[in-house]
Amino acid sequence: MGAKERREVMNRLDVLLAHLLKWEHQPDHRTSSWDGTIREQRRQVAREIKQSPSRKPFLPEVLADVYPDAVDRAGYETGLPEHLFSWECPYSLDQILEKTFSPAEN
C-alpha cells in the first residue's frame, strides 16, 4: 500500500472508530449525524478496498496504528476521559466494516 493510500485508509478508520466509540459510550447523545458519518466512512473504506483489494491485508496493521488516535479523538469530542475506553480496539475488523454492526451500549 502506498503512503497516500495508507493515509487515506488511516484517516477514514480514525474517524470511523472514533464515531463507533462515541456511539457506544454516549448512547444518550447519538445523532443521525454520527450515524451518517459511520455509514460514510464505511463506504469509503470499502471503496478503497474495492479499488485495490491488495490493501485489505494491511488493514489489521492500520487498525492497530490508528486506534489510539481514535480514542484520543473520541475522548476530546465527548469530554470523556480516555481511560474509559479500551486500551485495545474492542471491535473486530469485520465488525468495523459491517454495515449493520452497531456497538452495544455499556
Describe the structure.
With 106 residues, the protein is mainly alpha-helical. It has one domain (3-97). The chain contains four helices and no strands. The chain has helices spanning 3-25, 32-51, 59-78, 93-97. Helix 1 crosses helix 3 (59-78). The radius of gyration is 13 Å and the shape is globular.
| Overall pLDDT metric | 91
User: Nearest-angstrom radius of gyration?
Assistant: 13 Å
Instruction: Please describe the biggest sheet, giving its number of strands, its sense, and whether it closes into a barrel.
Output: none
What is the ordering of alpha helices and beta strands?
HHHH
Shape: globular
Helical content stands at 55-70%
- Give the beta-strand count: 0
Strand content: under 5%
Kindly name the structural category: mainly alpha
Instruction: State the helix count.
Output: 4
Regions with pLDDT < 50 over 5+ consecutive residues?
none
Taking the alpha carbons of the first and last residues, their distance comes to: 36 Å
- The count of domains is 1
Task: List the topology elements.
Blueprint: H1 3-25, H2 32-51, H3 59-78, H4 93-97
Helix pairs in contact: 1-2, 1-3
List the main descriptive attributes of the protein structure presented here.
106 residues; mainly alpha
Short synopsis of the structure:
The chain has helices at 3-25, 32-51, 59-78, 93-97. The protein has 106 residues and is an all-alpha fold. Helix 1 (3-25) packs across helix 3.
